[in-house]
Design goal:
It contains ten helices and 13 strands. The chain is an alpha/beta fold. β1, α1 and β2 form a beta-alpha-beta unit. The radius of gyration is 19 Å and the shape is globular.
């Protein structure tokens, strides 16, 4: 079924693959971003895309008439907006920016939809496995309680804002794990170091990494748009979480490089402050709701995911 979809926060690392796939599916898109959009990088039929440059963290921008018209035309909405988590040190100001870019924008989205009396068929809203907090030993699934740290509080408020959607609109919340692809995210930062033969695990290497290949994340989003059986919260992670030690070993093997220089925790703490906790402690997250009948992973195993990413 072809739909008119409004996308918020989808012009970066995930959008680079998601947007072309949505176009291939035959959907018409309206993409909203606070940045100038490089239309060429998506390599798609531009006639099927409407671009609006708006900073949606500012409430007054939600009064924009073009935005209202495209909201009225939308059958579905994909909201993945948010300041990057690990790009800067977690000062109080940066933490506030991370928080408001997600929670405030999602609150304004739901408020505007209700004000305009709209009833989109489906809303796909981002969240993160940070909802569960960090742990070396615990295992988490969709039924697990939330954690008590900053990211857990952020995800709780973000999801609460999304749940203010219209009553008859189907809502899918994806708690996204570490997204793997070579042109961005955690792997994009690690690849140059490993290619030089200077790679190794971060910290003691025992922490869990709950990951998903970008192709599977995009596949999940597209399935969630089409399949009415998708509803509620899902952990967007592969079926096989791994440890940092195992991740760095497999990555080094894919590149035919050594895996011999561990990254100590102190420089990471100095670089991103409190945010280092997420990397150094990690969490083992599984999905008990994404069954084979609902979605079949293209890259369920880390070996295949990293081989595909590094051989492009």
């Amino acid at each position: 079924m072809k739909m008119r979809i409004l996308l918020i926060g989808c012009t970066g690392f995930i959008g680079k693959e998601l947007i072309p796939k949505l176009i291939e599916e035959g959907h018409s898109l309206c993409i909203i971003s606070r940045k100038n959009i490089d239309k060429l990088k998506f390599k798609v039929e531009l006639k099927k895309i409407i671009f609006l440059k708006l900073d949606l963290s500012i409430e007054q921008n939600w009064r924009n008439k073009n935005l209202h018209q495209n909201l009225k035309n939308a059958d579905g909405i994909i909201n993945l907006i948010g300041e990057p988590i690990a790009d800067k040190r977690w000062t109080d100001q940066q933490k506030q920016k991370i928080f408001t870019s997600r929670v405030n924008t999602t609150f304004f989205l739901m408020k505007t939809i209700k004000t305009l009396r709209l009833k989109p068929k489906v809303i796909i809203n981002g969240s993160a496995i940070g909802y569960y907090g960090t742990s070396i030993k615990k295992e988490f699934n969709e039924k697990s309680n939330k954690g008590s740290d900053f990211l857990a509080h952020l995800c709780e408020k973000w999801e609460a804002a999304a749940n203010q959607k219209p009553f008859f609109t189907r809502l899918v919340i994806l708690r996204i794990g570490i997204v793997i692809e070579s042109d961005g995210g955690a792997l994009g930062k690690m690849l140059p170091i490993f290619k030089l033969g200077l790679g190794g695990p971060v910290g003691d290497g025992k922490q869990w990494m709950s990951w998903i290949h970008r192709t599977d994340l995009c596949g999940l989003i597209i399935c969630a748009i089409k399949n009415k059986n998708f509803s509620g919260v899902y952990n967007a992670v592969s079926p096989e979480p791994t440890t940092m030690d195992n991740f760095s070993n497999i990555l080094a093997n894919c590149l035919n490089k050594p895996n011999s220089i561990p990254v100590p925790s102190i420089p990471l703490k100095l670089l991103i402050g409190e945010g280092a906790k997420l990397v150094l402690e990690g969490q083992k997250v599984l999905s008990i709701k994404i069954t084979k009948n609902l979605y079949k992973f293209k890259y369920p195993l880390l070996e295949k995911a990293l081989f595909a990413a590094t051989k492009k």
